[in-house]
Write a structure and sequence with these properties.
The structure is a single chain. By secondary structure, the chain is an alpha+beta fold. It contains six helices and ten strands. The protein has helices at about 30-40, 80-90, 105-115, 120-135, 175-180, 195-205; strands spanning about 5-10, 15-25, 45, 55, 60-65, 70-75, 95-100, 145-150, 155-165, 165-170. The strands form three sheets. Strands 1-2-5-6-7 form a five-stranded mixed sheet, sandwiched between helices. About 25% of the residues are buried.
Length: about 200
């Protein structure tokens, strides 16, 4: 199910008030355009009709990939995450994947990973391994973020490292991703992020 609502927002630049459409749930089959807006990073943006300033809104959003049978939940208020996640897990079909993310960028990233038919557990692990390699070589600051970019033409995993100075890319070989993906059991944690991947790599050392 895809749902949206109208809300009034105040432009942080010119202080004019305008009506914005807030997408609280996006289904990639029912509304493929909105699903692509999410992946492209536009779903949470609102352009002020008075001055043209583009602001990023912060609100709850549930992404539903009906083809992959997966729900990805973003809750803006962290105090409400646990209750919202439990409610989602209780009503989700038993054969559905359920994930909770901490940021809008992570929601966008998970949607792209699902679109490309990848296992987000393996993606998180190879992202962190690539990040560690660059960081240990002094090529990345510790605060850099590693994000899934896309599939390369040869099937490799494109990883983007985002820093204050910009972004750089690297490609993880597909055979490495495949080996990591095959190592996982059917166990599915509700949160798969950098912290989770750090624990996995520590267990494998």
């Amino acid at each position: 199910m895809t749902s949206s609502m109208k809300t009034t927002v105040t432009c942080p630049k010119c202080r004019e008030r305008s009506e914005a459409e807030v997408w609280t749930s996006v289904n990639n089959v029912e509304n493929p355009d909105e699903a692509q807006w999410l992946i492209d990073g536009f779903l949470f943006q609102h352009e002020c009709p008075a001055c043209g300033h583009v602001a990023t809104l912060n609100h709850d959003c549930l992404f539903h990939d009906a083809e992959a049978k997966a729900f990805v939940l973003y809750v803006a208020d962290r105090k409400k995450v646990a209750d919202a996640l439990k409610a989602l897990e209780d009503r989700a079909p038993r054969d559905y994947l359920v994930r909770s993310v901490h940021t809008r960028d992570e929601l966008r990233e998970k949607a792209a990973i699902l679109r490309d038919g990848l296992d987000d557990r393996a993606v998180e692990v190879v992202k962190l391994a690539a990040f560690n390699k660059f960081a240990e070589a002094g090529e990345l600051p510790a605060q850099a973020r590693a994000l899934y970019g896309a599939l390369a033409e040869d099937g490799g995993i494109i990883v983007e490292f985002v820093t204050d100075e910009g972004a750089i890319e690297t490609t993880v070989p597909r055979d490495l991703y495949d080996r990591v993906a095959k190592s996982f059991t059917d166990a599915q944690p509700s949160v798969v992020d950098r912290v989770w991947a750090t624990k996995i790599l520590a267990e494998w050392d």
